[in-house]
From TrEMBL:
GO molecular function terms attached to this record: dioxygenase activity; lactoylglutathione lyase activity; metal ion binding
Domain VOC span(s) in chain numbering: 4-126
Protein name according to UniProt: Catechol 2,3-dioxygenase-like lactoylglutathione lyase family enzyme
Domain of life: Bacteria
Source organism: Actinocrispum wychmicini
Keyword Lyase among UniProt keywords: yes
Length: 126
């Protein structure tokens, strides 16, 4: 029986740039970082939620053939592959804070039936 989600993947175009974005602009902490001959493993997460790890992964080997990797990179660059939904105590305040750090929002905070929502893209387009 599955009891919880511990990791989820956010596809990125450049893992080093994504690390900078998620740690310096969003304030996440690095959880795991290692390199093997086949791939580079990097996970981050919000300090307040130690039980979840976001895998910042570039498309490519060993999981994807060259054609699939190319297609995924094109879709990422277009912003067609979504990332995640994050929660904050004050969406408008976080919007101002992140905007000041250079985070690009595609939607400013707006009232929705479920609460206040703002949408940003990471440096890979997600």
């Amino acid at each position: 029986m599955i009891t919880r989600l511990t990791h989820t993947t956010i596809w990125v175009l450049d893992q080093a740039a994504a690390k900078t974005f998620y740690t310096e602009k969003l304030g996440f902490e690095v959880r795991q970082e290692m390199k093997t001959e086949q791939y580079s493993w990097l996970t981050v997460g919000p300090a307040e939620q130690p039980d979840i790890e976001l895998i910042l992964m570039e498309p490519g080997q060993p999981a994807h053939d060259p054609q699939t990797e190319k297609q995924m990179r094109e879709l990422l660059a277009k912003g067609a592959i979504g990332g995640a939904v994050f929660q904050t105590d004050d969406c408008r305040k976080t919007f101002e804070e992140f905007s000041g750090r250079g985070v690009v929002f595609t939607q400013e905070p707006a009232e929705r039936p479920y609460g206040v929502e703002a949408v940003f893209r990471d440096d890979s387009g997600s």
